[in-house]
Specification:
The chain is α+β, with helices and mostly antiparallel strands. It has ten helices and 31 strands. A hairpin with a 5-residue loop joins strand 13 and strand 14.
């Protein structure tokens, strides 16, 4: 029994001794590790991309120097292209500034036993230097910096049948400042490559074809412009289609497209400028085949812009495809470019002659008397009267125009002369302008007044020229 207890005591002592020995060995190993890694990098340490595990400061710097001399940066471009920048092309070299030593001594050597199987990366930007001028020259020489195609935003275009979204052009235009920033970052930290696409070195479109706003705009443009309105100006036409209506769109408070009535009003005003003829200058061919310029007067076309703006707005809003005439506040005999047409009264003041045309054929031709106050211009026949009182005289026929003027006979006057030279009052000689009785009116002989009157109708144009 005593022998057995002795053996058990001996076993315990041996076990305790072994445990103490292991503890001593472990402590010694731990202490050695702490001591060792105070001057060497921990396992799994990478400095500027290079494996510096178990290396001291001198060895690490030597490795960095060798690796820096052999460094080549891959520049990966759009479309799987690749270029390179070698260390000697930009004067890249390792420069010891104590950064490696600071990094080495900053590592947690007391936990060295946890570093096995780990991968820890350190960046030391100040440990390399390069020639700035050589770097800029190299960047300029890169193929990705040449013949750049600028990006183009996705956009809406009229294809001839409808509005469609034209996809963006990505292009190849490099942002020089951004590229240089990424290259400097790579060469100073030992990165093996820069990817221009991933690193945001390209100038990209601001709007892509799947842009929600763009898609909605296209849909609304097709919806709002699905109508064709043709204005009929006789020998001329104006077409309002999607290319025109597109310019009338604006946005509401929600950002959606809508018709802008002010823009439609501006369009109608432009029609007025082009097609209104009251007071305009006209080239007129006389009875003796001369061309004269006649301007002024009250005859012609005038678009009622307020009414036509409302009518056009409603037609577009309700998608009423149609051929229409504008709403007019005043109309003339013909809507052709020649709005006088071929049925009119012609008054030649210098040659004292009046001719009435019906469909291009003279129906009456007579001499006249007028005063210097008779105004030139193209006027509208405003009234037809018989036995009218004019300036205290009774006339048999009067054709009113110009707001108070008229073509009339004068029973008290005796005309002499012939058609080619005009008529002449024997008491006045040829000085017709001194005869105050006309006071701007045009006087025809009594024997011609009925014929003139019979061939004139209200709204017929009267062309008077000097």
């Amino acid at each position: 029994m005593a022998e057995k207890e002795t053996k058990m005591n001996t076993g315990r002592k041996v076990l305790i001794g072994v445990i103490l020995l292991l503890l001593l060995l472990t402590a010694a190993a731990y202490g050695f590790g702490v001591y060792y890694f105070s001057e060497y990098f921990l396992p799994g340490s990478f400095v500027n991309g290079f494996n510096c595990s178990y290396m001291d400061q001198a060895g690490t710097e030597k490795l960095l120097e060798q690796e820096t001399e052999a460094y080549v940066l891959a520049v990966q471009t759009r479309g799987n292209g690749q270029e390179s920048i070698a260390a000697d092309e930009i004067g890249l070299k390792y420069t010891s500034d104590g950064s490696v030593g600071e990094l080495l001594h900053s590592q947690n050597r007391f936990l060295w036993f946890l570093s096995f199987g780990q991968h820890k990366t350190y960046k030391v930007p100040s440990s390399v230097s390069y020639d700035q001028e050589l770097l800029e020259q190299k960047i300029r020489s890169l193929n990705c910096m040449k013949d750049n195609i600028a990006p183009v935003d996705a956009r809406i275009e009229d294809t001839g049948e409808k509005f469609e979204i034209i996809p963006e052009t990505v292009g190849t235009q490099v942002n020089r400042e951004r590229l240089e920033e990424e290259i400097v970052k790579a060469v100073t930290t030992g990165d093996p490559a820069v990817n221009l696409e991933e690193d945001g070195c390209y100038d990209n479109p601001q709007v892509y074809e799947d842009d929600e706003r763009l898609v909605r705009d296209c849909e609304q443009m097709n919806e709002l412009t699905d109508v064709v309105i043709t204005y009929d100006f006789s020998d001329r036409k104006e077409t309002v289609d999607r290319s025109v209506i597109c310019g009338w769109l604006t946005r509401d408070e929600n950002g959606d497209l809508m018709l802008d009535k002010e823009k439609i009003s501006a369009y109608v005003a432009s029609l007025g400028e082009k097609y209104d003829t009251v007071g305009s200058s006209r080239t007129f061919e006389t009875y003796d085949n001369r061309e004269v310029i006649v301007s002024g007067g009250d005859y012609g076309w005038v678009i009622d812009q307020e009414k036509e703006t409302e009518a056009l707005y409603q037609a577009v809003a309700e998608k009423k495809t149609q051929v229409r005439e504008p709403e007019y506040s005043q109309k003339a005999m013909s809507r052709d470019t020649n709005d006088i047409g071929y049925t009119y009264v012609e008054v030649d003041l210098p040659n004292h002659r009046l001719v009435v045309y019906q469909n291009g054929t003279p129906a009456a031709d007579t001499g006249i008397i007028s005063s210097s106050g008779t105004p030139a211009g193209v006027y509208t026949v405003q009234g037809m009267d018989t036995s009218a009182e004019v300036n205290g005289k009774t006339v048999n026929y009067r054709i009113s125009f110009g707001g108070g003027l008229g073509i009339q006979d004068d029973p008290e006057m005796n005309f002499t002369g012939d058609l080619t030279g005009g008529y002449e009052d024997p008491g006045l000689g040829s000085d017709f302008s001194s005869w105050g009785g006309t006071e701007g009116n045009v006087v025809v002989p009594s024997d011609q007044a009925a014929l003139v009157f019979q061939n004139v109708t209200e709204d017929m144009p009267i062309v008077i020229y000097k």
